[in-house]
Design brief:
The chain is mostly beta strands. 5% of the residues lie in helices and 36% in strands. The protein has a 6-stranded antiparallel β-sheet with strand order 1-2-10-7-12-5, with no helix packed on it. A hairpin with a 2-residue loop joins strand 3 and strand 4. 37% of the residues are buried. The chain binds dTDP-4-keto-6-deoxyglucose. DTDP-4-keto-6-deoxyglucose (T46) is lined by residues 48, 50, 58-59, 61, 70, 117-119, 136, 163. Belongs to the dTDP-4-dehydrorhamnose 3,5-epimerase family. Catalyzes the epimerization of the C3' and C5'positions of dTDP-6-deoxy-D-xylo-4-hexulose, forming dTDP-6-deoxy-L-lyxo-4-hexulose.
Length: 196
Amino acid sequence: MKLVETGLPGCLVIEPRVFEDARGSFHEAFNLDALAAQGLGLAFVQGNVSTSSEGVLRGLHYQWPGAQGKYVSVLQGEAWDVAVDIRRGSPTFGRWTAVLLSAGNRRQFWIPEGFAHGFVALAEHVVFTYLCTSPYDAEADAAIRWDDPDLAIDWPVAAPRLSEKDARAPLLAEIAEDRLPRYDAAGARALTGEPG
Ligand SMILES: Cc1cn([C@H]2C[C@H](O)[C@@H](COP(=O)(O)OP(=O)(O)O[C@H]3O[C@H](C)C(=O)[C@H](O)[C@H]3O)O2)c(=O)[nH]c1=O
């Protein structure tokens, strides 16, 4: 596998080795030892799958406390996937990066704890899967407006279909400081916000 830097430090694209033969193809969905051998030590506690039709946008979501790192990929169709640094005190606070994920390119995308995440489905049937480093906590689950002008994310869809929650999400500037993840310069990853 190959790890590729993105425009946003900490966010990485992982390109797995794909084995193709007359039957079809094989690639590893994730490999913790191989990631650790390249300096990316991860541990996942939950895996999620969502299905979306074309034009659906899910996001921008994050958890705080209990920040989740996410290792995402697309099993069917294609999605434009976005990570935004919302860690208070981060030198790249408010900056975003995007990756086109598809069943065809088999790209995987690592989004560290403390980033907001969202994607827009670009095919009629998109199966999106992701592994999380912390468990879901409905109380800590939060959203930021997908079209926040301060973020100026260059979404490839002008009028996406949103959940009610996402349609009424606040702007980043409207969110109280203590509701945003904190940047931990030493670890270069957000603190999870867990006490102790
Ligand atoms: C995330 C999650 C949700 N749920 C329940 C809560 C709701 O009743 C239902 C749908 O949840 P939601 O509308 O938040 O699903 P998405 O809009 O796909 O949210 C996800 O999409 C963006 C892109 C993300 O990065 C997050 O992982 C996650 O927020 O599933 C659970 O039971 N467990 C979970 O881990």
